[in-house]
Design brief:
heterodimer; A: 292 residues; mainly alpha; two-stranded antiparallel ribbon; 11 helices; elongated; B: 297 residues; alpha/beta; Rossmann fold; 27% strand; ABC_2_transport (chain A); ABC-2_transporter (chain A); ABC-2 type transport system permease protein (chain A); membrane (chain A)
Chain lengths: 292, 297
């Protein structure tokens, strides 16, 4: 601690501190800055990179290899639908859940108990900028994850990818809406664990059960009707259905509930959960428990 | 109640948890540009008080003004004028020293230069290292750097030098003197009385949630507290006498006892002695060991 700092305002009156400027512009500017900060820190964490980021990639590989002899359905032309093809949409949906909900619920609960949020609470960072940073981190990592899944499926497992631009348009809106909804629900869920240490124990069972009942690891069409109805309450079922509508051949729509891809239903379910997540976040999120 | 000269004003501050009063009617002011030390044993209410001023805790009653605002209601513009070094470092995500400082600098309207601050806390060689890989003392210096990066008008330092080696502590003192020279107002809590004496203009001593003394550091305990004590052993018992003329008392003793008094000592009470008198000796164990050895040596 030897180098002297430039003395500014050392003589007499201090300069009047400049204001922070327009709140909205500042919130957005700092939010974008937070995205860069969060993404950089994310990829330096070996464990999250493996368990959240690469997990769907690992699972797709395992499913594709283990069931490489099995045929799941057939296309109208009589071609077999391989395990890789069949599970690609499921793993894309799982990735959305993991990058958003699981990642953020655990991450923010940890930041709450390790002092990161207390430090930020004492700084002039708008809370919305913090959220933009977290949601942005989920979107960036989720998109990268999806790209890796698609490349792996296409190049290694020879899964035919859609050629129609309209399908990719559907993919874009469903994926973005899904990952943002998932991220906001993760922020809301981060209020539940009492400590960072218990966050994994609280969050993983929730995401695991959702994945089993929503058609990620098990064929949704094999589940009993009542369980399908239960799963329909939660967003992951709709996310998985949306991904199937993009990547599976149209004739497989007969396996869906009501034999329909139900795009409006997907949009509605995800939007309702997004709003619910925003309301919950507004009600429960605090930088710190003021009287802990 | 706010005046231009007072950066902090606290009146009859109370904070209770159930039936227990953590802070029990504390009042003090901090003038612009001064360094105010808040001293007291562990659990006396120092951190509760400082966290109420920082806006982290709600008060039960009393009035608080910090930079003209009530911390419970103040907004981001107010936070932009504060620097906070919390008592515990906590953990930091996987970012480097320079990344962390550059990021926090971007949150403030008129920040200091990042490399200057890194130099000021002596972390030039660690600027590119991940914060989590640093030693405890180095991480504490990152905390201090983050606390001053926004060029705060008012800086809260809650036990800032815990974990510092003596050399790092001296460098830290030099840094604080520089901030003082620039007009920064500082609220400091510390267990190191030498640190309070080195840096503080005035000090408040808190014990059991109450302010037991509030004065310029050199006047704590009142004028009588620093009157020298002559101590000796007579007929198997320790005797002592407070006097402004210890040599005369000792000479009179020699005359009366007809020789060298047994166990003769002349004690000039140090800040530590005064402090211990004020908070009660049962808290002596709370003092940092280093302070005890330094002042007793």
């Amino acid at each position: 601690m030897t180098a002297p700092m430039t003395a500014t305002g050392a003589t007499g009156a201090r300069p009047v501190p400049p204001g922070l400027g327009s709140p909205l512009a500042r919130t957005v500017r700092l939010g974008l800055l937070r995205i860069g900060y969060e993404v950089r820190a994310y990829f330096r964490q070996g464990d999250t990179v493996f368990f959240t980021f690469l997990f769907p990639v690992v699972m797709l590989t395992i499913f594709s290899v283990s069931f490489s002899e099995a045929s799941f359905e057939q296309t109208a032309d009589g071609d077999d639908i391989t395990a890789a093809w069949f599970f690609l949409p499921a793993m894309l949906a799982a990735g959305v859940l993991l990058s958003g909900l699981q990642n953020l619920a655990i991450d923010i609960a940890a930041e709450k108990s390790n002092g990161t949020l207390k430090r930020l609470a004492g700084s002039p960072l708008p809370v919305v900028s913090y959220f933009i940073g977290k949601i942005g981190q989920s979107v960036v990592t989720g998109v990268l994850q999806a790209v890796i899944l698609l490349l792996l499926a296409f190049t290694v497992f020879q899964v035919p990818l859609p050629e129609e631009p309209a399908r990719w348009g559907d993919f874009a809106w469903m994926f973005l809406l899904g990952v943002i909804t998932s991220a906001i629900l993760g922020i809301a869920l981060s209020a539940v664990p009492r400590s960072g240490a218990s966050a994994t124990a609280v969050v993983i069972p929730i995401t695991l059960v959702l994945q089993f009942i929503s058609g990620v690891y098990l064929r949704f069409s094999d589940l009993p009707d009542w369980l399908q109805s239960v799963a329909s309450i939660f967003p992951l079922k709709w996310m998985a259905q949306g991904m199937r509508s993009v990547f599976l051949p149209d004739e497989l729509v007969v396996l869906e509930q009501n034999e329909s891809w139900d795009e409006p239903g997907i949009a509605l379910a995800l939007a309702v959960w997004l709003v619910a997540g925003l309301i919950l976040t507004r009600l429960t999120f605090r930088w710190i428990r003021r009287d802990s | 109640m706010t005046t231009a000269q007072n950066v902090v004003e606290v009146r009859d501050l109370r904070k209770t948890y159930g039936d227990t009063a953590a802070v029990d009617g504390v009042s003090f002011d901090i003038h612009r540009g001064e360094t105010f030390a808040l001293l007291g044993p562990n659990g006396a209410g120092k951190s509760t008080t400082i966290e109420i001023l920082e806006g982290y805790r709600r008060r039960t009653s009393g009035e608080v003004r910090v930079l003209g605002a009530d911390p419970e209601r103040a907004g981001l513009d107010w936070k932009a004028r504060l620097g906070i070094v919390l008592q515990s470092s906590g953990e930091v995500g996987a970012v480097t020293v320079r990344e962390q400082l550059a990021h926090f600098a971007a949150l403030y309207p008129n920040p200091r230069d990042v490399d200057e601050v890194i130099g000021a806390v002596g972390l030039e060689e660690k600027a590119g290292a991940l914060i989590r890989k640093l030693s405890g003392g180095q991480r504490r210096r990152v905390d201090v750097a983050v606390g001053i990066i926004g060029r705060p008008e008012l800086l809260f330092l809650d036990e800032p030098t815990t974990g510092f080696d003596p050399e790092a502590r001296r460098s830290f003192w030099a840094l604080i003197r520089q901030l003082q020279g620039e007009g920064t107002t500082i609220l400091l809590t510390t267990h190191y009385l030498d640190e309070a004496a080195q840096l503080g203009d005035r000090a408040g001593i808190i014990a059991s949630g109450r302010m037991v003394d509030l004065a310029p550091i050199g006047e704590l305990g009142g004028a009588d507290a620093r009157i020298p004590i002559v101590r000796w052993v007579e007929q198997g018992g320790v005797r002592e006498e407070r006097t402004h003329a210890p040599a005369a008392v000792a000479a009179a003793l020699i005359d009366r006892l007809g020789g060298e008094p047994e166990g003769l000592e002349v004690i000039r009470p140090s800040l530590e002695d005064v402090y211990l008198d004020l908070v009660g000796h049962e808290h002596a164990d709370d003092l940092a060991p280093e302070t005890l050895t330094e002042t007793r040596a």
